[in-house]
Design goal:
Elements (H helix, E strand, L loop, with lengths): L12 H16 L4 E9 L2 H5 L2 H18 L4 E6 L9 E7 L3 H11 L7 E10 L27 E9 L1 H4 L3 H15 L5 E7 L8 E7 L2 H11 L8 E3 L4 E5 L2 H8 L4 H7 L4
Antiparallel strand pairs: 1-3, 1-4, 2-3, 2-9, 5-7, 5-8, 5-9, 6-7
Helix pairs in contact: 3-4, 3-8, 8-9
């Protein structure tokens, strides 16, 4: 295995071996970068562009995003009319951090992209959960990649724990999490995707719950509030309720265009 880049010339042999092992693990079991990008369309777009111009703009931006989705995973969701400061959400998953930057730059070159603001954006990575319990069933949370469940709705929020949580003994943390996990397993209609942001962004985690039943997610969160682990929560807002929709449908709706008309005129499948 080739020598990897380090920034300490005095690294010891055992440290070098551990460092090289980590890099080998990166190759054998790569982890994914995850971006939760929420967009808001500037109101001047609707006032200054004609219907035909907006139809062309939707097609242009959709093509850019669809081209990128050939290289990495992109899922589109509407937040239109649900949360006032956002209109839609792109859930992006890649093994290259640069993919997010490159797509964002390409979006800015499009007509519609020039009118988009990003009021919220959260960055995280996948990782193996340290809270393996008797309930573990080999689900995606314990692996280094996300497999989207395809739920009609997704509920996303950044999550921060208070610092005293991290100095609890492993036994005390595990006991608190066992209770937390037991509650979660009472709601099989809700799929949890946990990703980690330590050092990458302002939050500790980003969590995304998929479900076809918003009422089940509401009841789950309400019940989780009563657990011991919940007392160590510093922040779990803002919370975004999102509706899974085809990309061109989402872009058409925020552009004030009949999505059925736009899709019929589009060359995309």
């Amino acid at each position: 295995m080739s020598t990897m880049q380090t920034y300490r010339p005095d690294i010891a042999a055992d440290e070098r071996a551990e460092f090289d092992k980590r890099r080998k693990d990166d190759i054998d079991k790569p982890r994914q970068f995850v971006s939760f990008a929420f967009y808001k369309l500037d109101s001047t777009y609707l006032r200054t562009l004609s219907d035909d111009q907006r139809t062309a703009a939707v097609d242009e931006l959709a093509q850019v995003i669809e081209d990128a989705s050939d290289r990495f995973l992109i899922y589109s969701y509407s937040t239109l009319g649900i949360r006032r400061e956002t209109d839609f959400f792109l859930w992006r998953i890649s093994y290259r951090l640069e993919d997010f930057e490159e797509l964002s730059a390409r979006m800015l070159t499009t007509t519609l992209g020039k009118y988009l603001q990003t009021p919220y954006s959260f960055l995280s990575m996948t990782g193996t959960s340290i809270y393996v319990s008797e309930h573990d069933d080999g689900s995606d949370e314990t692996r280094n990649k996300i497999v989207i469940g395809g739920g009609k709705y997704v509920f996303v929020y950044p999550f921060v724990k208070v610092r005293p949580w991290y100095v609890l003994s492993p036994e005390d943390r595990m006991a608190a999490m066992r209770e937390h996990i037991r509650v979660g397993h009472k709601y099989p209609s809700v799929k949890l995707n946990t990703t980690y942001s330590f050092g990458l962004d302002d939050q500790d985690f980003v969590v995304a719950f998929e479900s076809d039943y918003p009422q089940d997610f509401l009841d789950l969160v309400k019940e989780l509030r009563e657990t011991n682990a919940s007392t160590y929560t510093e922040r779990d807002t803002p919370i975004f309720t999102c509706i899974k929709q085809d990309l061109r449908t989402v872009l058409s709706k925020v552009s004030g265009i009949d999505p059925h008309h736009q899709k019929e005129g589009s060359h995309a499948g």
